[in-house]
Amino acid sequence: MTTRKNQSALTTDEKARFVKALLELKRNGTYDTFVTTHNGFIMSDTDSGDRVGHRSPSFLPWHRRFLIQFEQALQSVDPSVSLPYWDWTADRTTRSTLWAPDFLGGNGRSRDGQVIDGPFAHSGGNWPINVRVDGRNFLRRALGSSVAELPTRAEVEGVLAMTTYDMAPWNSSSNGFRNHLEGWRGVNLHNRVHVWVGGQMGTGVSPNDPVFWMHHAFIDKLWADWQRMHPQSPYLPAAGTTNVVDLNDTMRPWNDVTPADMLDHRKFYTYDTDAA
Ligand code: CU1
Ligand code: CU1
To answer: What's the gap in Å between 61 CA and the centre of ligand 2?
Structure first.
C-alpha cells in the first residue's frame, strides 16, 4: 500500500527516487500528457457551463483521481515512490528544504523568472516546458512575489470547520468547504498557493512545476481530514444538477469514475498521519 509522506520528512534517497521518476516520465513523454489534460480542463471549466476539474464540487474528487493516475505512472518507473505532500502552513518560506537543489530547486531569477538550480532548471536540459501558454520553454517561479504570504494553519482550521461540503450555485461563488478550500471565496487556500509560487504554477499548465503534485496532495489530505472531522457531511450535490458532477455521475475524462468512487482515499493510499 502506498503511503504519502510529508515532503519535509523524506530521506535524501526518497527525494532522489522521486526526482528520478519525474525525470523519466518527462523523458518518455508521459509527464506532458498530464499537463495537457489539466490545461484542457482549466480552459473548459466555467461558472455557467460544464465544469468538472475546477470551480465545482468535483474539484476534489477530480484532482484525487488525477493524482492517483500520476502516482501510478511514477510507480511504473519506481514502485517505491509515492507522492509527497507540501504542508505550506509549516514550510512557508523560500528557505524551505523543498526548494533546495537536491529536490525541486529554488526561486526563479529576477530577469525572467527562470529556475536556475536543481533537477528542473532549464540549463540542465532535462525539463523542457513543451506544453506551454507562451513561447517560454523554461520552468519559471516567482516565490512570494504576487502574494506575500502562504495560508496559515489558523486559516486552514477555519475552512476545515465548515460543515457543508458545497452548495448552489455549485461554482466559484458558492459558500461551503469546497469553494473555501479551492480558494475562490474567503481566505483563499488552494488558489493562493498557486499564485504564491508563480510562473507556470499560476496558469492552466501548472503541472509543469513538480510542486503542483505536492500542493495538490496536501489539498487532497485536507479533504480527507475534513471528512474525518465531519462524518455526517456528504459529498454534494447528490443528483439531478445541471452542468456539475453529482455524486454518482461519471467524471470526465474517465469513463469509469464517479465522485462516490473517490470518497475513501484509503482504498488507494494512506497518509502518514492516518490512524493505522
Ligand atoms: Cu487543477
Ligand atoms: Cu491547483
So the answer is: 13
pLDDT per residue over 141-182, tens digit each?
999 999 999 999 999 999 999 999 999 999 999 999 999 999
Going from the Cα of 63 to the center of ligand 1, the distance in angstroms, rounded, reads 7
List, in order of start, the domains of the chain with CATH numbers: 2-92+144-271 (1.10.1280.10)
pTM of the predicted model over 0.85: yes
CA of 267 to the centre of ligand 2 (A): 23
Q: Give distance in angstroms: CA of 40 to centre of ligand 1.
A: 10
**pLDDT < 70 positions in the chain:** 276
Q: Which amino acid is at 243?
A: N
Is residue 25 within 8 Å of 73, Cβ to Cβ?
A: yes
